[in-house]
Amino acid sequence: MTGWVVRGIGMCLINVAVRILLGVAVTQWPLHGSQLRWLGMAAVLLAVVVWAGLDGIRDRRKNPDPEYGEDLTMVWLKAAALGGLAAGLITWLVQLIVDFSVGQNSLFFELTSGAAFTILVIFIPATISVFLGRLLAGRDAKKKLAASDAKREKERHDRHLVGAGSASAATIPAQEPQWSGDNSDTEVFRAVDPDAPEPRGNATKHRDNS
């Protein structure tokens, strides 16, 4: 079943149940009929507001863009029409079978004036509740989106700082060790070349010794 059929049947059953309970209560406490009727009206309105409000919240969470949301206005208009007509018919049948003091109205009245009143009681609060539900869900979505953007911006900033620090460390040239002290020649003995000619003075000295 489609959504408007489910809602129409649900609101029909709620209206019939409230009218039957109201008839029983008025029979038991006839002096409080006015208060009991207002209480029954409040019960129907509460059911409509909660149901339609949840529809608005779910639709906004499913479709953040309002242009792609479901047409809940038509859904609840069809549901109200079905609920009003079905509730009037069932109530008329119930009063023929059992006397619950739900009113001795004709079938024509139940399907015209009675149904029209029930349709208005369902449709107008449902439209307002859908709007409020979407508004509430939209605010929550904006808050979550802002928090998510702030978190991503912080992570991007942290990664930028880490990357800049690594780049700075990579561009520092390695310094060669510097030796302190004088630059004097540290050679102690002269290197000996075996192929070099022997100095003349040494050769003369060797001949004299021999």
UniProtKB/TrEMBL annotation:
InterPro entries per UniProt: B-4DMT-like
Location of region: Disordered: 147-210
Biased composition (Basic and acidic residues): 149-161
Keyword Ion transport attributed: no
Annotated TM spans: 12-30, 36-54, 75-94, 114-137
Species per Swiss-Prot/TrEMBL record: Rhodococcus sovatensis
UniProt keyword terms in alphabetical order: Membrane, Transmembrane, Transmembrane helix
Domain of life: Bacteria
UniProt-recorded name of the protein: B-4DMT family transporter
